[in-house]
Amino acid sequence: MKRLLSVLIVFAMILSLSACGGDSTTDTTTDASSADGSAVVANSVNYALRNTSWDLSPWKNNGSSANTMCLQLYSGLMANPEFGTVLEDMHYDMAESISFSDDNLTATVKLRDYIHDAQGNPINAEDVVFSYQTAPTISGVYAHVESLLDSITALDEYTVEMKLKALAPGNWESVLSNCPVISKSWYESASDDDKANDPATTGAYRIKENITGTSVTMEAVEDFWQQDELRSIYQIVNAKTLYFVSIPEDAMRAIALENGEVDMAYLEASNYSRFADDSDYNLFSTVMSNPSTIILNCAEGKLLSDNAALRNAILHALDFEQMGIACSGQFTFQSHDIASLLCNDYDSAWDDQPYFEYDVALAKQYLTEAGYNENSGLTLHIMCRNVGGQKSAMVVAQSNLDDIGINLIIDAYDQALYDTYLTDSTQWDLVFYTTNMTTGYVTESWNNYFGSKGENGTVGFVKDDKLQELLDAAKNNDDADSRNAFRDYYMDQGYGANAFMETTYQFARSYITDVTFNYLGNLSINTSVFSSSFTR
Please, are residues 448 and 418 in contact by the beta-carbon 8 Å criterion? Predict the structure, then answer.
């Protein structure tokens, strides 16, 4: 009952936001093709991105901008309509049917026999195997594929056999829905320029023009392979052309929306009141499924490496509530775990337990235990992306650590440089970090943040055998005792913390009456529903 209450409180906060706008909504599961009873297909819809960096090559989707675009460009075996969807409720995409062995470790996937990409290349079992084997080598976003799959084999032209290394909640959901499939023959012959600017997409849209750091124009594929009645939400075509323009400054995005240069825009909390009470605009808001976290660098030789007391001093000195308000407004909140409280197996009892509470006196006690004091002259670097809300949150963190005598230097980078430095232990001491979640299970989130990623260890360069043993037990046993044991251990060690859950605000001109968010919490602008009077 407590679990249900927690979720209801979250969405009650969002609904209270929406009530301030026009005909706004936060429904993420609406049939967007007919939500207002019409079937208006626009010639184009324009959206303002907040980032200047993206890569739309297969499997290179990085950051919120790419996550907003890539699901319309690439299809996979199954489509995950929203965060927390269980396997039986996912949408069959390239897969026509899936059967499982008695022990549920093996899946036999039968493909639709009519799939082709935007350039006419047929897609078959060999392409699926190639995609699953190649994706983890291209981007860490797909590292889970390699970590979860024991093998993947083409049995015949349209049949694939997949075997898991072990069963755990969310494993099949993650594997089957989170790897785009593209043509092997095309990929191996394509140039880097072709991959970035004219990829052989398998989704309902293709790239018409990609001006790096400036804009992307996507157009609907005329002979798209999927049958209309079988399209997933990412394959709906409510606008023939999707135009994305990069406007990194929030104030300029607001002006572009007012001037009609864009139809929709992500706006930070500071601009909320400017549009919320204006009937010329509709507000669509959602809680991001991926928590905003602080991860500490525990690489060998680093200051925080072997000093759990110092790590705890830092985490207890941070005022996560104020950091959240600075980033995303007053409706942010903290989950009492590094995983989202929206996860299916999140234990609501955790909400009644202390979780890195803001306590300067306690932080100073930990600092003394760590062998330091307020006059020790410690200096640390925190890395974040060069996005307004994140930088604002880091300024709060900077002030917080100054209260215990630690000088915090903020290093804000664009997405590409951030991604490069993330795996370089010499570049940061703390990082403001989010990562995509594909399923609604805490163990998936734990694996993302604290699972070993090879020779570097975890995201925070932790190499701790006990941490991995407890994580494996939590995944394999799937019981409360194992989950609590893992949670207690990472908290005691101070390896990282959930800073806050972010609410995002998407404002649209009033002629857009509904939208759908993807499972990552990003807008799927292809699903925009237009009023019957809309004529563009």
Answer: no
